[in-house]
Structures are given as structure tokens and as C-alpha cells.
Design a protein that fits this description.
Elements lengths: L2 H5 L7 H8 L4 H8 L3 H11 L16 H10 L2 H8 L3 H11 L16 H10 L4 H8 L3 H10 L6 H18 L2 H13 L12 E2 L6 E2 L1 E5 L16 E5 H8 L1
Helix pairs in contact: 2-3, 3-4, 6-7, 9-10
Length: 246
Amino acid sequence: MSCTESSRTKIILTKKEIEDAYGKRNLDEASEILGVSVVTLRKRMAELGIQSHSNGWRPNTHIDKELLENMYQEYSVPEIAKMLVVNMKTVYARTREYGIELRRQGPVRSFSPSPDELKSLYKDKGMSMKAIAKHYGVGETVVFKRLSECGLAKTLDERKASKERVLADKKARLSYSNKAWRKAVLESDGYKCKKCGVEAGLCEHCQQRIFLQTHHIKAVKKYPELRYVVSNGITLCRSCHANEHR
């Protein structure tokens, strides 16, 4: 038999082989054990009338009521699910079954490090909120709240305002007015960099394409009313533009 013929040999799986491999495993694990693809395994299961786990075997998801109540006082649902090696849906289902009232926020834990301690981690060492939360064993929300209280991080309102400013600036950059302003600045400068005099096009020496950019002389953040004023714009090449911002 040739190599081509052997590679096309059909693998026949028996019902017992599939049931032994698939018994308490998922399709990916069973297909790996049997050495076939998931699609092939599904087709063979349909031929043999073997039901998938969605209608057949279920793992034991019983959680003791008293244990769940005690754990929920200290841990969140994702943490409980991870510790008990079950799905979060299972934990939520048991809380409904036992009549355990869910919190809107996570468990309240004592977290009151000094501002100097937090400053050392967040500002000096450059640790992220996630890393600080892991360091103290608390949630990121708790860390963010404490950093805000100590004046080390922006409040939610400040973050929202900052995000709105970024979106507004992006919208302005893509607007027709900004495109018209850019074209007017380039024309007024003769399509040349005002610093080094290079023109747009292909460089004669290095054969690299030169792109021209427009720069606001007075920053838009401080002078938003001058955003579309042509006299407040200057044409620069990429290198000169980068140096200007430095």
C-alpha cells in the first residue's frame, strides 16, 4: 500500500471504544484519545446513536448549603467556582436553590494600606492595579477605590471625562473640517517641510517615500478655538514633527 493510500484509510470506531473514551470527557479530549477529528467523532456517534453530554452524562454539581453560605461571606462567585472546580453557572444555580441573596458587589474585605505604601507600589515601582490586587489578595475595584481616595488615581468621573475627550479629539481628526485645514496648511507651505525644506515624494538619495504632516503651532488642548485656523498650522516631515513633540 502506498503512502497516499494509507493516509486515506478510514478509521472505524466501535460503540464501546467511543463510550469508553467519551464517558466522562468532552469531545476534544475523546477525539484526541481516539486519534480522529471532532467532526469525525460526531458523525460516528450519530451513526451509532450515542448521545452527547448535553442530553446525557452530567458531572456531580452538588454543593453543601452551609459550605456555600460560609464561602459566599468571604469569596466571590468566580472564586468559589474555581475553588470547588465547578462552573460559575452551577454556583449561581445553587444560590438560587438555597435562597442565598446575591450581592451587587464583591465581598467586603479590610483594605486600608497607607497612602505612602500605595504610592511606593503604584507610582515608584510602577505596579498595575491588577498586580497590587494580587499582592494584597483583593479585587481590582477595591484597589482602584483606595487609590482614588488617596489621590493616586483618577476617579470614575475623571476617567469618563478623559475618555470623552479622547473620543471627541478622534472625531475631530476624522472630520471634513480637519481634512480641509490640513490641505490648506500644505498648500500655504508649498508642500515643503518648514524646518528642513524637504518636499513630499521620493527621496533622491535613499529612495524612501517622504510624507508630510501638519502640526498645530499652539496646542489644541490649550487653544481648541485655533484647531482649524490655517495660520496656526505648519507643514513638517515625520522626523521634524517627532522632534517638535520632543
